[in-house]
Amino acid sequence: MKIEFPQCKVDFLQMQAEPVVLVAGGRAPSTGWLGKTACRRPVWAIDRGVDICREAGVVPAILIGDADSGSAIAWQWAEAEKNVVKVKHPVDKDATDLQLALQELSIRHPGAMALLTGGWGGRFDHAFSNIFSLLEAEILGVCPGGLIDDAEALFFVFTGQNLTIEFSDEPKAISLLPLTPVCSKICFGGVHWPLADAVLKMKSPAGISNRLAKESTKVEVSIGQGILGVYCCWNESGL
User: Fold this and answer.
1) Taking the model in full, what pTM does it have?
2) Residue 230 Cα to chain centre, angstroms
3) What are phi and psi of 99, to 5 degrees?
């Protein structure tokens, strides 16, 4: 399944799932980037993500959260749209707004792929929670696609899977991040430092700051065992 973003085209070779764009309340992507990414795809606004949607003129299909961080003006804007489904939760709860959104996604769109934007920036604990909440959603039947905006992205590759990324905008860095204790039989092509049947460990990550090989516009990643994050950075300013 190929998904096109403004700066790259990602082919999740073993996956066939409807992508749903979840807009959270972290660092906002540019309005133009979000408008292009949201085109012809379902969009869900998660609490303060409704402000990001409003700024970009993207009307979400669903607005979900506890309204503790989204502005009243943006919530009113979304609530005024008759086709927007509102799912409101109490402020005091055990799960994060993203975790609740992923639970709701598993019910309304079982088997969908979750693509999170507005998931970067700000506090590290938020980004950490966002990454592993997406991964855990696989238990619910949601396909974790990754986190992406115009500055950086993290795509997930699971045991026995292949991922291809074709770049229209060359990234400044491409890194492989082991998201399980051990990731084995990793192959990584199209880069300056390729890998073949390599092992990466969470406790000693060594696949950082690679780059495209000369005249290459595409990378290919496969993994035999584990969960691997393929991280791309286009703009280091303001991260």
Assistant:
1) 0.93
2) 11
3) -60, -40
Gap between the Cα atoms of 79 and 62, Å rounded: 10
Angle at alpha carbon of residue 25, lines to 20 and 26, rounded to 5°: 105
124 by Cβ neighbours in 10 Å (0-12 / 13-18 / 19+) ranks as: exposed
Q: What pLDDT, in 10s, does the model give residues 184-239?
A: 999 999 999 999 999 999 999 899 999 999 999 999 999 999 999 999 999 988 77
Place of tokens 């008759």: 82
What residue ranges define each of the domains in the chain, with the CATH number in brackets?
Answer: 16-150 (3.40.50.10240), 151-239 (2.60.120.320)
The order of strands in the sheet holding 218-222 is 2-4, 8-12, 162-167, 218-222, 182-189, 195-201
Type of residue numbered 55: E
- CA separation for the pair 64, 85 (Å, rounded): 8
Instruction: Identify residue 58 by its one-letter amino acid code.
Output: V
